[in-house]
Amino acid sequence: MSPDRVWQVFQGIGLAWTAVEVGRAGSIGVRRKSVRPLAVEGVAQAGSWAAGAAGFKAGGKLGAIVGLKTGPGMLVTAAVGACIGGLAGYVGAKRVADATLPVDLDRAMARAAEQVPSRDEIRQRLERLRRRTSD
User: Fold this and answer.
1) How confident is the model at residue 20 (pLDDT cuts 50, 70, 90)?
2) Distance (Å, rounded) from C-alpha 106 to C-alpha 86?
3) Cβ–Cβ contacts within 10 Å for residue 78, how many?
């Protein structure tokens, strides 16, 4: 089995797992009336896919180097190395994302929403700007 086929198999499994995890985060977010679960999952999935792909490539190369002496066994060691590297990248990135996102994301978003000017404030600012530039 070629490395591309191995990657396609794991990619399919990963896409299905991503859909499940995002669905869970969405239902938790609806129950809590919070965006945080989806935000955490979005960052975790993006980082996990990137780290998983990098780990897959690095692990495959390392596995190929380890299995170089065995000849046909090199394909097996490359596939195993790719799987281990991809899994390590995925798990590591997910843990980092879960640990680093702010706990008070809802409050931060509420503060940001409060700072958005209303339509009337925007009109007043534009009118002041027009007066300044027309003089």
Assistant:
1) very high
2) 32
3) 22
CA torsion angle 57 59 62 67 (round to 10): -110
Same domain, residue pair 37 and 90: yes
Tokens found for residue 91: 């798990």
Judged against a pLDDT cut of 60, whether residue 18 lies above it is answered with yes
First-to-last alpha carbon distance for the chain, in angstroms, is: 75
Range of the domain at 128: 104-135
Same domain? For 77 and 52 the reply is yes
Q: What number is the average pLDDT over the span 2-29? A: 83
Distance CA 133, CA 89 (A): 55
- The DSSP 8-state label assigned to residue 115 in this structure reads T
- Identify whether the C-beta of residue 88 lies closer than 8 Å to the C-beta of residue 54: no
* Co-location of 23 and 76 in the same domain: yes
Q: Please work out, in degrees rounded to the nearest 5, the angle formed at the alpha carbon of residue 59 by the alpha carbons of 56 and 65.
A: 140
Instruction: Provide the 8-state DSSP code for 123.
Output: H
